[in-house]
Amino acid sequence: MPAVEGLFTVDDGEPRLIGGRVPGTDSYFFPKHLGGADPRVGPVELEEVLLSRRGRVWSYTTSHYPPPPPFVVAAEPYVPITVAAVELEREKMVVLGQCSAGVSPEDLEVGMEMELTVDTLYRDDDCDYLVWKWRPVAAGSAGPEAERRDSIS
Amino acid sequence: MDEIAVLGVGMHPWGKWGRNFTEYGVAAARDALADAGVDYADVGFVSGAVTVRCGYPGYVAGSTFARALGFTGAQLASSYSACASGATALQVARGQILSGACDVALVVGADTTPKGFLAPNAGDRPDDIDWLRFRLVGATNPVYFGLHARRRMDLYGATTDDFAMVKVKNSRHGASNPNARFTKEYGLDDVRNSPVVSDPLRLLDICATSDGGAAMVVSSMRWARDHGHRNPVRVAGISTVSPTYPDPVIDLPYLAADSVADPSAPLVGFKESIGTRVYDEAGLGPDDVDVAEVYDLSSAMELDWYEQLGFCAPGEAERLLRDGETSIGGRLPVNPSGGLGAFGEAVPAQALAQVCELTWQLRGTAGARQVERAKVGITVNQGLFGHGSSVIVRR
Q1: Whether pTM exceeds 0.90
Q2: Do A63 and B140 touch (CB under 8 A)?
C-alpha cells in the first residue's frame, strides 16, 4: 500500500505522481493540496492530473546518515540513500524523490533523463509501504511522448 | 523607510550548554541593555523570537523573556518564522517604534537545540509538507544543501575545495570571537577528511545546531538623540519577503518547486528578492556594502549568497572567494563573526546575532576580526516555509 495516500498511482501499471492544475492553464502543483497556489487566479478548484513520468536531473545528493523520524529506516544497517531533484518534462517543475536502490551519485549527472518508478519505502509484518522513486531511463527504452496521458477524471 | 537606532546589542556565547533557553535570552538582553545604557523600565515593547523545541514557554517567547526580566506592563509580541524569527521580531519592533506606539524596544531570541538533525515534532501528519519530506524522501536539511551545492558544481564549475575554503575562511574569522562555539582554525585537509553527510558536502561544510542567545535594544531616532546617542548604528532596511510565485528552485521543506511551464509567469528568484527589498528600503545597493553576515548553513550556500546579494555576477563567487575579497582585509568581508560555521544554528537567535556582529563592526569595536572603515553592513538569512530575512545597518 502507498506509504501516504493520494500522492501517486500505479493504475494501468504505470507509476505516475498525482498533481493539481488550474483548469485550462499550465500551472501545476504537487502535492495537489499542499503545493501552493497561483496568485494570479482567483478561487479555483484544481483539477487532478497525472504528472509527466519523465524528466531531467536538476540536481542530486545523498543522505549518508540515517534521517531522523518520521523517516523509517528500511533495514539495518542503514544504506545511504541517493536523492534526485528532477524537472518534469511537461510541467517544468522540479520534484524530489529517492532514487531506486543501487543508484549512486556516480551514476547521475545534471540533465540526465529519469523516470518515475514505485518501490518499497519500508515494510512491516503486514505489508510493503510504497513510495515514488527516480531511476535513470535505460538507454533505448520508449520515449515518453508515446505513453503520455495528462489527466484522469 | 525611516530609520531606527540600535542603542545596544548583546549575546550569550554559543555552545552546547543544555540549559533553559530563557537563561541565554535574559543574559543577552541584560548585556544589550547595559551596552545601550538604557534602563529596563524605559522599554515599552518586548519582541521575542520564538523557539518551538523547548516546550510550551518557547511558543510565547516575548512574555517568557519579559517575565524572566520582570514584568513591567510593557507590550509584548512573539514571532515565529523559523531561522528568520529574529529579523521578524526586529521588524515588529520597528513597526511599533515608527508607528509611535513605543520609543524603546527590546528584541530577544534564544534557543536550546537538541543533538542531531533538526526534524519535525513527533506525530503522524501526512498533511504537513515538512513531515512528508522526512517520511517519504528522507530529505533532511543537508539534503537540500547538497542539491544546491551539486548544482553549483555543475553550473559554474565549483569544486569541493572551493566549499572547503569557505569553511577555512570562516573558521579563521571566528577563531578570536568570544561568542563563537567553534574557535578552531580548520585547514583544507580537515574539511576534505571529514565524513560525507550529503554528497558533495562533508561534515565540516555543514553547520551544527547550538544553544545561544542574542538581543538588541532599538529606539526611535528622536529618542536616541534626546538621550545622548549622537551617532548610533541605524537600521536602514529590513526585508521579510515571501517568495514570488512561481519559484522554480526547490527548497526546504517542499517536495516540489513551482511549475514554470506557463511562459507568462514572472520569474523572480526568492533569494535575490530578499536583497532587492532590503536595498530598496535602505536606498542602497550592493556597491555600498562594506561587510556582510550571510547564512552559511552550508559552505556552498555562502557562495550562492554572494551572487544573490549582487556582490558579483552569477558564477563569479568562487573567484571572489579565491581572490580573498570576502576575507577580512579584502574588498567585502563576509562572515567576519565566523558565521554559522563557527556558531551553529540557534534558530531564533541567529538573525539577531548577525545584526549584533554588524553593530560591533560599524562601531569599530570588533577587536581582532574588525573590518576596516565599515559604514554599511547587510545580513541575509532565510526561514523554513518561505521567510526572507535581511537587515541593512549603517553608521
Answers
A1: yes
A2: yes
Cβ of residue B115 closer than 8 Å to a chain A Cβ: no
Query: Which residue of chain A comes nearest to B252, CA vs CA?
Result: A96
Best residue in A29, A62, A133 for a mutation probing chain B (most B CBs within 10 Å): A62
Q: Which residues of B82-118 are buried (b: 16+ CB within 10 A; e: fewer)?
A: bbbbbbbbbbbbbbbbeeeebbbbbbbbbbbbeeebb
Closest partner residue to A70 among B120, B147, B261, by Cβ? B120
> What structural domains does chain B harbor?
4-116+210-226 (3.40.47.10)
- What is the value of ipTM here, to two decimals? 0.93
pLDDT per residue as tens, chain B (395 positions): 899 999 999 999 999 999 999 999 999 999 999 999 999 999 999 999 998 765 566 778 999 999 999 999 999 999 999 999 999 999 999 999 999 999 999 999 999 988 777 788 888 999 999 999 999 999 999 999 999 999 999 999 999 999 999 999 999 999 999 999 999 999 999 999 999 999 999 999 999 999 999 999 999 999 999 999 999 999 999 999 999 999 999 999 999 999 999 988 889 999 999 999 999 999 999 999 999 999 999 999 999 999 999 999 999 999 999 999 999 999 999 999 999 999 999 999 999 999 999 999 999 999 999 999 999 999 999 998 899 999 999 99
Q: Are A144 and A53 in contact (CB under 8 A)?
A: yes
Which helix H or strand E contains A113, and what residues bound it?
strand A113-123
Domain extent, residue A80, equals: 8-137
Give me the residues of B, 33-92, that contact A with CB < 8 A: none
Q: Which residue has the cell 518551538?
A: B52
- Is the residue at A149 inside a domain? no
